[in-house]
Design the sequence.
């Protein structure tokens, strides 16, 4: 009751909880205050000499607002939202803005509904954006399509914060009618505009896009700030922009910067955290700690208009991190709305056993044979050549198939029978194959191997549920199931990280130089928007010319 | 159409308007950029080498975002909203957040509906807050009551931004049920908490109050910022806090500060502007000009979540001020949504002839006689003693009536016949009287004079419409009608300022030392929340003891 909160704030009633003797990080006035923080019914009643039903002496630890991840694809952690919550809350995250783009490409509305439902019973505050690019391109054959009309319907039906990252920059500036319909249906739209500037950026901004997490340089970030974008500084598994982008931050434009992870794998989340890692890294690089906290907490609450959240101030939601060190590497307690959600690195809640029946068994193909996947080498056909440590590929011609791997992309949603095939240069897989149902953005089956026999064995090992399988000498040596849409497990992040570690180990035995990278390549070789040559379910795709060859 | 805006931003289509060769004030990145600003369909398409159907060479003038008044009572300008728009837009104001508290006290919902309707046809963007304190105290007898139930109803029926200034601080911290109902009905609530700090401020913040325009000191402002309040730095006719409060502003907390006028008289608006005057004053005091613009434009748009407004950036509404000097004293052009609304100090639109029938003839009393207003002097009765240049009063006892003036407060809304009377020390009115239907917050008739005969003549001169009347030797020497609720004219601010000037002149002939102040005192002597003794329609009110004596 409001009156109880007010009476507690006045000191007339006991608070529910008082955190005593803290160094309180004040992101509103950019200073640190020593004192006690009172909490009543999930609300911070203020800083002062309060008494509480429960009193915790934090003994000089820092009391900071809970961290906010401004943009994340939970699916990249390969766990369900509730398991994700259990992984990130001990690391100080209390709110995330999630774009369920991957599950939407597999299962559309059912997938979205699953994510929303699964997040409901955990203390992590999960706000969803409605994915704006399902499918990512007209050449993608995923499990679902969310067009302009469906976008309107879903925005009405569920409480999305707005539209997820509008990756279809050409669609925006080309004024494609269905894209215009999407843009006009939402007040707040996430951006995705790597290396876009000048009039192109002006036009993109006019489309209603409000933020960007794809800046590669400080200069790019500054141009985007002047164009009204909030900049989400990304530090994920693949892309790490923090070191460069912090150069753009000044006390004056700080308000337009926040942190995000975009995509981060479970083992890394468990090892270093997500937003806490951004805080640590920024401080370690010599940036002002309170700048880091302001970006980690308050700024994205303002950007997304989440109400009174993101600061330790009276009347604000009691989302609080207690950390021994200002770098947030020694987080002791994490409160969400005044309730202790994690302590000493452990979540204090049990993720629910969600009903996954609506999103499982998504691999809809017949058993494949070696013949299905075989393709004779032809020196006149484009070979996809990989750049070490990059998702960017090139199209080349080779004199022989020597040292090349065979790759296939198998449509798995609608039983079209589509199988794209090509040879790949740059991985030296010997006598084995790896297959997985993670393949951005359509999440068809991507398989790569030394030969079609091993490849067929790997694909067939995925079964109806999907996941990742490693095959050597036509025998399965490692397999992890990802029954939720073929991209997520319902197991804990710890288990998933272990299983994935085993996959990586076994993958190493096939291609010692490739190892981890092989899996990443497999996940992104079908993403038809990254230059220059990709493999879709209809064959090799020339990204620059935006067509199948 | 969105596609036309996007195509213009790309440079594929001509803009509607291009402002060329400007120094563009970038409040997002805190810098000044030289260039051209393109505008299409009311939206800023960006800064660049655009071509436009209309092109205006601003020849090195500053191009700034339109000014926003974060908190204003239009009624204090004694003109209707549409006339107010014509007065402030030439001074660069494009958006105001108005609290129609005065008209609500006179005419309740009808008054609010009139204000909303009257603002509709002018280019000024007027956002209304629903007055939260009608009446201001339970001892006030105004024309209307808006209780918690009615508050909910009105919030649903009209598109208010939230609740207007919650002046009832005791009601909030006392958890008065009807006040709780009001607080719980709105997401965003304006504050009014002069000199409140510590746990009282914590409790007030917990009530959901989001801003404050009553800070008297930099220290007070800083405490409020740490408590999550946005600070509206006020520079009005009565209260002028800018010089003091700017001391609190740092590059880091700048985002929490904006400008407002609260109450400003028409002559002053015409002479110096409103928010432009804040900009000028801040810069003249040596503060960073871009800080001043950030406070004048962008910050309150963020505070009130008005969307993409308040910056000259692509995708933002084209609310633009072109000013020759950075102090904004030489404003040449003012655009609202890309349309020229004012040029060279003149509004380019005609305020509508609004239908005032629902809000006129609000003086509901019978003719008064000298006997009605007479009160024999009694040395045992409290005399209200005025402080020079202040609204704060004291209760004193006098040995004789020598040199005192007689004052009355006449209930004028519901024909209760209530007349409060007292003697007043500190004004030397000779052989005359002044009466007016402006009397905060109930707006009953306030009349002061040398004797009850002159007073009766002044009151009777007000008629059914109300306004201000000055009487000398029982003859009316000056009168201005304020037919809209007895507090506003439908005439232009220029006319109203002239008429008011004449009132002041004639008032001077009655009380040379009092002059302007007499009218101000008359307006506030009935405001039962300013210490220490006031005159209500039931007699002298002890503010400290919060009761009639």
Sequence:
């Amino acid at each position: 009751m409001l009156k109880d909160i007010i009476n507690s704030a006045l000191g007339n009633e006991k608070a529910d909880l008082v955190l005593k003797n803290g160094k309180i990080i004040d992101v509103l006035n950019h200073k640190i205050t020593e004192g006690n923080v009172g909490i009543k019914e999930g609300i911070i009643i203020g800083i002062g000499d309060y008494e509480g039903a429960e009193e915790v002496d934090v003994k000089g630890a820092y009391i900071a607002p809970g961290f906010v991840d401004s943009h994340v694809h939970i699916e990249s952690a390969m766990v369900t939202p509730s398991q994700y919550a259990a992984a990130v809350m001990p690391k100080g995250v209390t709110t995330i803005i999630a774009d369920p783009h991957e599950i939407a490409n597999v299962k559309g509305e059912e997938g979205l509904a699953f994510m929303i439902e699964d997040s409901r019973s955990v203390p992590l505050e999960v706000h969803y954006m409605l994915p704006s690019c399902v499918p990512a391109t007209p050449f993608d054959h995923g499990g679902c399509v969310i067009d302009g009309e469906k976008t309107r319907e879903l925005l009405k039906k569920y409480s999305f914060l707005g539209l997820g990252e509008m990756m279809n920059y050409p669609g925006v500036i080309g004024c494609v009618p269905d894209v215009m319909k999407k843009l006009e249906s939402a007040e707040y739209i996430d951006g995705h505009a790597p290396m876009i500037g000048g009039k192109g950026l002006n036009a993109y901004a006019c489309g209603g896009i409000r933020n960007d997490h794809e800046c590669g340089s400080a200069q790019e970030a500054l141009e985007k700030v002047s164009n009204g974008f909030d900049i989400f500084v990304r530090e994920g598994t693949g892309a790490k922009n923090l070191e460069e982008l912090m150069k753009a931050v000044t006390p004056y434009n700080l308000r337009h910067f926040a942190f995000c992870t975009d995509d981060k794998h479970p083992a890394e989340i468990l090892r270093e955290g997500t937003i806490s890692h951004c805080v640590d890294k920024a401080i370690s690089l010599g940036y002002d700690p309170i700048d880091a906290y302001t970006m980690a907490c308050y700024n994205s609450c303002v950007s997304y208009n989440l109400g009174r959240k993101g600061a330790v101030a009276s009347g604000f939601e009691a989302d609080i991190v207690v950390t021994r060190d200002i770098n947030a590497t020694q987080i002791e307690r994490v409160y969400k709305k005044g309730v202790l959600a994690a302590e000493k690195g452990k979540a204090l809640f049990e993720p629910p056993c969600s009903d996954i029946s609506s999103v499982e068994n998504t691999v809809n193909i017949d058993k494949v044979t070696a013949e299905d996947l075989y393709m004779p080498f032809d020196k006149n056909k484009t070979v996809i050549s990989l750049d070490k440590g990059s998702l960017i590929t090139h199209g080349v011609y080779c004199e022989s198939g020597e040292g090349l791997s065979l790759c296939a992309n198998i449509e798995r949603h609608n039983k079209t029978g589509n199988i794209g095939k090509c040879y790949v240069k740059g991985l030296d897989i010997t006598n084995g194959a790896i297959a997985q149902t993670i393949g951005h953005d359509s999440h068809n089956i991507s398989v790569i191997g030394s030969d079609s026999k091993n490849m067929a064995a790997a694909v067939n090992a995925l079964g109806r549920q999907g996941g990742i399988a490693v095959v050597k000498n036509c025998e399965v040596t490692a397999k992890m199931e990802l029954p939720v849409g073929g991209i997520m497990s319902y197991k804990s992040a710890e288990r998933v990280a272990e299983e994935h570690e085993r996959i990586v180990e076994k993958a190493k035995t096939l291609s010692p130089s490739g190892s981890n990278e092989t899996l990443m390549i497999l996940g992104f070789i079908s993403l038809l928007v990254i230059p220059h040559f990709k493999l879709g379910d209809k064959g090799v795709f020339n990204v620059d010319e935006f067509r199948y060859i």
Remarks:
- The first strand of chain B starts at residue 15 and ends at 26.
- DSSP finds 16 helices and 28 strands in chain B.
- Chain B touches chain A through 58 residues (CB under 8 Å).
- Residues 301 and 310 of chain B are 6 Å apart (CA to CA).
